[in-house]
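hey so u asked for the seq, here:
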Amino acid sequence: MCGVPSSPICGTSSAQQQNAEDKWSQPAAGIGCTGRFRSPRAASCARRSAMLLPPPSARTLSTGLTNMATEAHEPKFLQAVGMYFDRAAKHSGVTEEVLKHIKSTDAVLSVTFPVEKDGRTVMVRGYRSQHSRHRLPCKGGIRYSSEVDLQEVEALAALMTYKCAAVDVPFGGGKGGIMIDPKDWTEAELERITRRFTLELCQKNFIGPGVDVPAPDVGTGPREMGWIADTYRNFNPQDVSGAACVTGKALSLGGVRGRNEATGLGVYYGVREFLAFPEVHSKIKHHGKVEDSSVIIQGFGNVGYWAAKFFEANGAKVVGIVEHDVAAYSAAGLDVEQLALWRREKGSFRGFPDAQQLIEDNPMALLEAQCDVLVPAALERQIGLKNARRIKAKVVGEAANGPVTPGADEVLRSQGCVIIPDLLLNAGGVCVSYFEWAKNLSHLRFGRMNKRWDERSKGQLLALVEGNAGRPLSEVERRQLIHGAEEHELVYSGLEDTMIVACNETRQTANAKNIDYRTAALTNSINKIAASLAGSGSIFTHA
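ran it, structure tokens below
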């Protein structure tokens, strides 16, 4: 059984670190919620079979995997989002009344409906939260998990509002979830559940291209999005833009090329930009480039896999990848694709022959190994007061939602670590969802109208250059130079520009106000939302 790669471990925390821990020793009040919409209980099933209704969940994202690194007194996810908001609000210059408006949840739909399973009728509970409708439609994923609860949905919806504002995506924040474990249900049963939940959303006007646009999340993917789109289309056959009611669809149903890897690519772009800032690489004593940087990634799902692929492709050494059951480490860098193929075949990293070490007894300990960039891309609350003082990464890039608790955030910053916040770094998914939504509304594939025109224009220019140079280019050289952009290349370009602009806005605010990057990104979001509310005015608010 292998241990963590040997590296110096921090000793006793400094007084500054201890103060940071004490400061967060009490939970704070969470985000307020107004205007909840509670639907009536679903109609009774025709059969008089046993109805299994799960009790209302009191869980606030406190599963074992999200508690391993945290102290009992640390705030839960919803509370943490509220605490970060309050910290940023002090720097925003926005009035208290407007801040209350921004912070509050606009509407929540809670439904239960019966589904037959193995001769029984099981009552399934689902939620959809619309945190802010200052811009429409609302946008956010739908997750399938037995751990889904109202607080989780509200917290993630709030984070989506701030995330969209941070990267100038014109959506309000939303989130949804169904309280089931997908592994317990057959594909046919999952389809019935998905279509029934979509029916509830249609009946309550919680879905539509201009109202609320779901997307994939934990436990869902293009298959479920296809079912949602088809159900919406059947109930709204007159809506010519109905395909835009959901994003993350398969290409054959109106999806966009590049959506699958979007969040991981956005993580790469964001880390690349922050490493290049002079004040960052001088602070962390780094050369400022992704190339030759050492990276450890926690989580090897869609986001972690693609982030690892893009880091590796651009010269970084992915020295460690952490999963819940085993972690793989190699000081020379792991072969990401070979590791992915091995796990696909074997179901785990165990036995992977090209790893220098495989850590099974405590995979989480690899988060504490020496590296330039640590990317938590799995669950929330993975760095807390239990392990924050032992984190030796120079940069922590939050690819997951809420992986660092408020107390750990302050401890890490007191150690000189640069934290790139989740609402900025993992916004690639919603950016490309925006592109897919726009594509569906226009009914036109990106590049279809201009690709050949661009190639002809470049070809004419190239002919002039060849004539003046007196040397014709080879066919391969010529094709490379006149190549017109494909859809995925335009998507990559749009995402890169979005991340560059958002990272620089965050940097400017942080430097101007002498605040950390999380607070700066959230301050920018608050000010943008406040400007939108002020510009549009209010109906029925003032006399």
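Residues 167 and 502 are 5 Å apart (CA to CA). The longest helix spans residues 487-513.
lmk if thats what u needed
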